[in-house]
Amino acid sequence: MLLAISDASVLVDMAEANLLGSLTRLPYEIVAPDFVIEEITRPDEKQAIDALVRGKKLTVLTTGLDDLRRVEELQQSQARLSFADCSVVVLAERHQALVLTNDSRIRKVSEGRGLTCHGTIWIVRQLVLQRVVTVEGALRVLHLLLDINPRLPKAECNRLLQELERTSGGPD
């Protein structure tokens, strides 16, 4: 199974859309660095993520000493990335994992290091393709996410909305 390392932005979107459980049904082992888990502080989001960890559906990667050095080095060269963001990149590099992020800065650094990155919109598409959620459910989720997350890429969201609406036979 392929490993996918998530940052906080994706986990928060999935929690807000009530899709954390669905995310773990994709053909990836979903993991998050310990520093990313610490960034999630809203009680409802934290509770949902903790439940996945307890159920062994989400793995928390502990950042080891060698990785901590690499994270610090990366953060020194990429001052706009947080320590948690840098831990995503370093651990994805070490494990040759897919990076799940909505953060353009993490994406740019990761892709510059040869890593593949995807965000929430890609995940929603995968959930439909893997038949984890229905087209109608995905349409509802996308509208919700557009309302609650102004940072999502609007053009990409609109493309997927149009694609799903064609599939379902029209808008809701």
Describe the secondary structure blueprint for this structure.
Blueprint: E1 2-6, H1 8-16, H2 20-23, E2 28-33, H3 34-39, H4 43-54, E3 59-61, H5 65-77, H6 83-95, E4 98-100, H7 104-112, E5 117-118, H8 120-129, H9 135-148, H10 154-168
Helix pairs in contact: 1-4, 5-6, 8-9, 9-10
Write up what this structure looks like.
Helix content is 61%, strand content 11%. By secondary structure, it is an alpha/beta fold. Helix 1 (8-16) packs across helix 4 (43-54) and helix 5 (65-77) packs across helix 6 (83-95). The longest helix has 15 residues, at 154-168. The mean pLDDT is 93.
- CATH architectural grouping: 3-Layer(aba) Sandwich
CATH-defined fold name: Rossmann fold
Strand order of the largest sheet: 3-2-1-4-5
| C-alpha geometry | globular
Structural class: alpha/beta
Radius of gyration, in Å, reads 16 Å
Classify the helix fraction into a percent range: 55-70%
Order of helices and strands: EHHEHHEHHEHEHHH
Tell me the number of helical segments per DSSP (H or I, 4 or more residues long).
10
Low-confidence stretches: none
Q: Supply the CATH class.
A: Alpha Beta
Largest sheet, strands/sense/barrel: 5 strands, parallel
Count structural domains. 1
Mean pLDDT: 93
Corresponding CATH superfamily = 5'-nuclease
Describe what is shown at a glance.
This protein is α/β, with parallel strands linked by helices and 172 residues long. 61% of the residues lie in helices and 11% in strands.
Keywords:
Rossmann fold; 172 residues; 5 strands; single chain; five-stranded parallel β-sheet; globular; alpha/beta
